Amino acid sequence: LRLGSFFGTTMGEVQLTERLSELNFQKRFAEIKPNSFDKVQGSHIAFSVLDFLGVGGQTMVFCNACASGNYAIGWGFEQIRQGNLDVAICGGVDAFSRVAFTGFNRLLSLTPDKCRPFSANRKGLVVSEGVGVLLLEDLEKARTRGAHVYCEIAGCGLGMDAFHMTSPHPEGQGAYESILRAMAQGHVTPPEVDFISAHGTGTPANDKTESIAIKKVFGEDSRIPVNSIKSMIGHTMGAASAIEAAMTCLSLDRGVLLPTMNWEVPDPDCVADCVPNHSRIFKGRVALSNSFAFGGNTSCLLMVKEMEKVK
Q1: Is 66 a catalytic residue?
Q2: Which of these is catalytic: 90, 151, 156, 235?
Q3: CA 290: distance to chain centroid?
Q4: Is 278 a catalytic residue?
């Protein structure tokens, strides 16, 4: 069995670095174990998964800011698609850290109360932590072994508009191109897309520019449902896109769209339907999962329930 472990992260093992710094500052050297510094390396994340399972295989860790999880999933998807691997364990992970919290606070990106994606009175994001993992394998092999197939990954669009270190491109250029690339790889047209899982951070700039990119692809008057689960779980950094990809799989499999909570005031600059405040029964088969990050890192996954029934 050719196996791979691919994970994305923003902060890596920074919480361990913070703890070691505390012990060093307090001169509590006896509490610093010799192998502690080995675990600080970001590569330790992907290796630890295989080590826990007691197996060997390829490992890779992606550090593409908050789009890291999608980059890891996209890499695993390509390895399976090209026949290089049989199984890919892909995802994203980030633990809460003072570095991330302080950094976003200094950027004035944090909300003083709650996260309100796509609402005109949105004020920022909430920093949180989490992990999301997908198990990828060839569709026919999964069916042969009787596995439950939640959905198929049909395309992955990655980009780098490099507009600014922290601000999104004002016209959503990288986001727009990533969406088009994912759809092109899966041979899907805009009218065939039923739902979008948004990056949806709740910051004024992100939600506006993501909406611009979506409207460029689907039309100014599009009412395609676009939700943001960051309104409920916060921004989990490098884990965000992987958790949202898992949510998209489950939405397609179970026929339910999760809501964008805390929405209060319509914003003409944002998408028309953000699935506000209440979940919704969903019969669609094609979805996009967006993730757009600092430095111009942009990504989009095309996810489909039973691809042969879409065409």
Answers
A1: yes
A2: 235
A3: 7
A4: no
CA 103 – CA 238 distance, rounded (Å): 15
**Catalytic one among 66, 249, 274, 300?**
66
Catalytic-labelled residue, pool 115, 151, 199, 270: 199
**Whole-angstrom Cα distance, residue 201 to residue 236?**
10
- Spatial separation of the C-alpha atoms in residues 99 and 2, rounded to whole Å: 37
Going by pLDDT thresholds of 50, 70 and 90, the confidence category of residue 215 is very high
Q: Is residue 199 annotated as part of the catalytic site, yes or no? A: yes
| Long-range Cβ contact pairs of 243-247 (< 8 A, separation 24 or more) | 243/69, 243/92, 243/130, 243/131, 243/132, 244/69, 244/132, 244/197, 244/289, 244/291, 245/69, 245/70, 245/73, 245/132, 245/134, 245/197, 245/289, 245/301, 245/303, 246/132, 246/133, 246/134, 247/197
127-164 pLDDT, tens digit per residue, is 999 999 999 999 999 999 999 999 999 999 999 898 88
Beta strands in the chain (DSSP E): 3-8, 58-62, 87-94, 130-137, 152-160, 195-197, 226-227, 256-257, 280-281, 286-292, 297-304
Task: Give the span between the Cα atoms of 138 and 11, in whole angstroms.
Answer: 31
Strand, coil or helix: 7: strand
Least confident of 8-17, 100-109, 209-218, 296-305: 8-17
Q: For residues 26 and 41, what is the distance between their CA atoms, to the nearest angstrom?
A: 23
